[in-house]
Design a protein that fits this description.
It contains 9 helices and no strands. The protein has helices spanning 6-16, 22-38, 44-48, 58-70, 77-87, 96-107, 110-121, 125-141, 143-156. The longest helix is centred in the N-terminal third of the chain and has 17 residues, at 22-38. It is globular and about 45 Å long.
Length: 158
C-alpha cells in the first residue's frame, strides 16, 4: 500500500487544478497518481475536487476523468458509479462543465447508462436533483444528440 496523507493530496490537487504552470501540471498529475494508487473507491470523491472549468489545460484535466474511470477495472461498475454520483456535488459550481462532460460520457454508453439509472434512483433527493439538473442542461443544450437519452434517464430516476 502507498503511504498517503490524503489531506495533503487533496490540497495539492485543488491548488493546482487551474494548471497555469508546469509546476501546477506536475503537482496535479502527481496528486492524481497518488490518490489512484491508493486504490480506495471512496477516493473518487477526492478526485472530483480536481475539476475546475477555468483550467488552462483541458487535456491534462481529462486525465482526471480517466483516473476516475480506472476504478472500473478494480471495482464493480455499479459501485464506482455510485461513488461518482455521490460525489458530483463537490464539482458544483466550479466544475459544472466537467460534470456535464462526465455525464455525456455516461449518456453515450448505453450499458453504463443503464447501471447509472439504477444507481441514481437509490440516491438521496439532493444528489438526485443535482444530477437531474446536469442531465437536463445537457439535453436542452444539444437536443439532437441527447434529448432521447436524457428524457429516458430523467423519467427513469423518479
Amino acid at each position: 500500500m502507498v503511504s498517503l496523507n490524503i489531506d495533503q493530496e487533496i490540497i495539492k490537487l485543488k491548488s493546482s487544478r487551474l494548471l497555469k504552470s508546469e509546476q501546477e501540471v506536475n503537482d496535479f498529475e502527481e496528486a492524481i497518481e497518488r490518490i489512484v494508487a491508493y486504490g480506495e473507491i471512496t477516493f473518487i470523491k477526492y478526485l472530483c475536487y480536481g475539476f475546475h472549468d477555468k483550467t488552462e489545460r483541458d487535456e491534462v484535466t481529462f486525465g482526471l476523468i480517466h483516473a476516475i474511470e480506472s476504478f472500473d477495472q478494480k471495482y464493480p461498475l455499479d459501485d464506482t458509479l455510485r461513488e461518482l454520483a455521490k460525489s458530483v456535488y463537490v464539482m458544483i459550481p466550479d466544475a459544472m462543465e466537467w460534470a456535464k462532460t462526465l455525464h455525456k460520457r455516461i449518456l453515450n454508453h448505453r450499458p453504463t447508462l443503464q447501471v447509472y439509472i439504477e444507481v441514481v434512483k437509490s440516491l438521496d433527493t439532493n444528489s438526485k436533483n443535482i444530477i437531474a439538473n446536469i442531465v437536463s442542461s445537457i439535453k436542452d443544450k444539444n437536443p439532437t444528440r441527447f434529448e432521447e437519452k436524457g428524457e429516458m434517464f430523467l423519467s427513469s430516476i423518479n
